[in-house]
Amino acid sequence: MSIRADRTYINLPVKNLKKSVDFFTKVGFEFDANFTDENATCMVINDHTFIMLLVEGFFKTFTKKQISDSAKNTEVIVALSAESRDKVDEIVNKALAAGGKTSNEPIDHGFMYGWSFEDIDGHLWEVVYTAENGE
Fold first, then answer.
1. pLDDT average per 10 residues of sequence, the chain (135 residues)
2. Rounded to an integer, what distance in angstroms lies between the CA atom of residue 30 and that of residue 44?
3. Secondary structure (H, E, C), the chain
4. What does the CA dihedral 34, 26, 71, 69 come to, rounded to 10 degrees?
5. Distance between alpha carbon 116 and the CA centroid of its chain, in Å?
6. Contact between 88 and 115 (Cβ < 8 Å)
7. Its pTM surpasses 0.90
8. pLDDT attached to residue 133
9. CB 74 within 8 A of CB 60
10. What are the CA-CA distances from residue 27 to residues 72, 94, 134 (Å)?
C-alpha cells in the first residue's frame, strides 16, 4: 500500500511574516491570499506543493517540541527542481539579492546542476536542474 496525497504542505516557522513574504516575492514566488492572515501565508511552489510560512508563535501551536534555531541547526532542506541551469542561477541570485545567503557553492555533475541558499530565517533551499535522458 502506498500513500497518495494530492497536495503537499511544508510548514516553516518565520520570525517576521511581512519580511519573509517580501523576500520570497523578490525571489519570484506567489502567495495564496485565501490562506494568508497575520499568522501565516501560503507560498505556491506549483499546483500540488505549498510552503506555509507561519509566525513562530503560531507555529508553536502545532507542536510540543522546541523550534529549531535555523541559524545554527538544520532540520530540513527544501529542494526544488528548475527547468534549466540558467533558472537555477536566476532563482538563487534573486534570493541572494533579496537578502539571502549562499549555503553552498554551485555543484555541477554534468547531468545535474544545483546551487543552494539560506532564506532570511536561515532555512536551507536547494535548487536543482537535472538533464533528462542525458541531454
1. 81 97 98 96 97 97 93 91 96 98 96 97 96 63
2. 6
3. CCCCCCCEEEEEEECCHHHHHHHHHHHCCEEEHHHCCCCEEEEEEECCEEEEEEEHHHHHHHCCCCCCCCCCCCCCEEEEECCCHHHHHHHHHHHHHCCCEEEEEEEECCCEEEEEEECCCCCEEEEEEECHHHC
4. 0
5. 10
6. yes
7. no
8. 47
9. no
10. 23, 5, 29
Residues written for the chain: 135
Cell of 29: 514566488
Residue 102 identity? T
The pLDDT value given to residue 75: 87
Block residue for cell numbers 532542506: 77
Q: How far apart are CA 113 and CA 131, in angstroms?
A: 9
What is the pLDDT at residue 121?
96
Q: Look up residue 112 and give its three cell numbers.
A: 545535474
Question: What are 114's three cell numbers?
Answer: 544545483
Residue 15 grid coordinates: 520570525
CA distances from 91 to 33, 42, 79, 118 (A): 23, 19, 12, 12
